[in-house]
Amino acid sequence: MRYRLLALLVVISMIIAACGSGDEDTTTTAAAGGGDDGGGTAEVIDIDFWVAFSDEARLGFAEDRAAEFNTKHPEYNIEVTSFASYNDAFDAAVLAVDSGEPPGIIHFFEAATRQALDAVGADGNPIFKSVTEAIAGRSEILGEPVVLDSVVSAARDYYTVDGSFYSMPWNTSTTVMFNNMEILNAAGITEPPATWADVETACEAIMGLADGPSGCITWPNHSWFVEQSMGQQGELLANADNGRSGRATEVFLESDGMLAYLDWWKGLSDSGYYTYTGLQRDWDGTSNAYLAGEVAMLIYSSSDTTFFDENAEFDNQASFMPRNGDVDYVGNLIGGATIWMLDGMDTATEDGALAFMNFFSNPDNAADWHQLTGYVPITEDAVDLLEGEGWYDESPNSKVASDQLAAAQNTPASLGALLGNFVGIRDIITIAIEDILVNDLDVATRMAQANEEANKSLSEYEQLYGN
What we know:
This protein has helices spanning 4-19, 56-72, 86-99, 113-118, 131-135, 153-159, 181-186, 196-207, 223-233, 239-243, 256-270, 283-291, 305-311, 347-360, 363-373, 380-389, 391-394, 400-406, 412-415, 422-438, 443-465; strands spanning 27-30, 45-51, 76-82, 105-109, 128-129, 140-141, 144-145, 160-161, 164-165, 168-173, 175-180, 217-218, 297-301, 316-320, 335-342. The chain is α+β, with helices and mostly antiparallel strands.
């Protein structure tokens, strides 16, 4: 077997060392390569690639791939710019379009899909172009094989709108549970809990240990976990089939599935089983509590599977996100982000951008990215490559997210919602959950208030973009 991940990490560390580091919110780097092609006078085509990652490993991966592409295609120069968040990248892109200096390709998260489709420039035309339309049935571009047909179904189905694949999936995740099997085994639990009831049973045993942890389970207070549970239970978050058969004009924050999940969450908290760090969207605090042995179980993004495997000083085992055992399982949905392409580029620039986007997720690169992070391999060809190398035999936790997504039914509930102002609606849900957990508010009463706020926000968005 080839140990491509080790080699990749060495290359990334060399690039990062060469580029230096800083504390700025954004960092622009010109990827190596491009330039003169050996004495010719042809002008190199610059293409800006804006990335919503600023950490060394993930940003380094993007810079490394850009450098490799530039060397392979010296007529192009992919320039990588880093942003601190998806929102920062998207807002900057809109301003750049209006100023006449937009990036060619930009990376942002799944919750912005509806907003990206609705985004227009100062001239009123759409900012982004469908990747399907741009590829126009070609099997390769500038010698780079097109990978769209190989994209795993969960990502393909999420990002296909009105029959068109609008953006190129890159980092795709789902919600899984990480289990400290040493604590679970000490409490007489031999398998990770699969249902809410199983979690409660396990927590009762764990909290009864004489030398047990201070808490049993944790996860960040983030609306994404609510959305995951809605998918599991087959509940819609919004009308029009979660915004997939038409524009969503109403959200359902008082559904039976929503109230059941939040009642269970509050019950865990009231029993002393769930540990709330006191901060919304506290990814670092919850992961640190798990690694420190302060809790036995962590529900989290699969994107950090490699991180937990490398940093847990105990038997760390990944499993499916626990579900409501009283209803049929429908499916978990994806998280993560895709790469969108600017509309209106000339043919040569557009083909360069398309070639890079397909090169970026070719089997070798998609497999390396998965091994580096834990994000699912984005294409079936990458999955086949990893299986052939024996990767999943060596790292079984890395297969859990892909297996969970493959187990989902292809329904509007399990695909997830397409919503205007989704980020704002997520904030409304997250704030309501904190009120429920911290201020001991009644779930149904607080979610009725949140439902009113969220629908007002969605209505205001639709008044601007719905037509």
